[in-house]
Amino acid sequence: MKSVSKTIARATLTACLGLTACQPPAEGGGGGIEPKLMADALHAVMESDRTVYTRNVVNRLAKEQQVIAASEHWKDEPALPLPAQMFRMGAEMVAEKDVGFTYSLLSMWPINKQNTPRTDVEIAGLEFVASNEGQNFYAEETLGGQKYFTAVYADTAVAPACVSCHNEHKDTPKTDFALGDVMGGVVLRIPVGS
């Protein structure tokens, strides 16, 4: 019975996230989804997709079976996009849809300098998740006159391919990553207030 309730709750949340805005309850309550709950749910999907692609596609095909390479030059070579590139392409596509949130993959040790943190909250969040295993970072910030709920989640090395790619890349500023290490963070931003 408990699992049925959980399944219904998950289905309700999933259905709500698919809409532009959830309907408020008929009586009482504030209505809508709290930014933290929405951010955590979105991140759960992103992290799962990213882990599946990294482990079951890139690591399996490129590292274990050596069927095809994974390369940052995948558009010019017969190769798979790197997991970070897949993530960025998804983030850019979501941003184009203007669905009320944005996300990015940033790092204190970025190979691609586009992934360098720029705001104080991004820097504080990345430092926090790197130093506090298993904990997320939440804050509010105002950018361009808009207030945002900003969440930062650790991005860890989930497969040997992550470690070797980062440690061996010619532009890497850090060469001693190990499996399970925090390599950066997912920054998820939701506008709040008016």
Task: Quickly list its features.
single chain; 194 residues; alpha+beta; 4-stranded antiparallel beta sheet; two-stranded parallel sheet; 5 helices; 42% helix; globular; disordered N terminus
Q: If strands are numbered along the chain, what order do they take across the biggest sheet?
A: 3-6-5-4
Distance between the termini: 41 Å
Discrete helix count: 5
> Beta-strand percentage?
15-25%
Mean pLDDT: 86
* Fraction of helical residues: 40-55%
Please tell me what the overall shape is. Answer: globular
**Spans of 5+ residues with little confidence (pLDDT < 50)?**
1-26
How big is the Rg? Answer: 18 Å
Number of strands: 6
Structural class: alpha+beta
Q: Main β-sheet, in a few words?
A: 4 strands, antiparallel
Order of helices and strands: HHEEHEHEEHE
Structural write-up:
With 194 residues, the chain is of the alpha+beta class. The chain is 42% helix and 19% strand. The chain contains five helices and six strands, in the order H-H-E-E-H-E-H-E-E-H-E. A four-stranded antiparallel β-sheet has the order 3-6-5-4, sandwiched between helices. A two-stranded parallel sheet has the order 1-2. Helix 2 packs antiparallel against helix 3. The longest helix has 30 residues, at 35-64.
Write the layout of secondary structure elements.
Blueprint: H1 2-17, H2 35-64, E1 69-70, E2 79-80, H3 83-97, E3 102-106, H4 120-131, E4 137-143, E5 146-156, H5 160-168, E6 182-191
Parallel strand pairs: 1-2
Antiparallel strand pairs: 3-6, 4-5, 5-6
Helix pairs in contact: 2-3
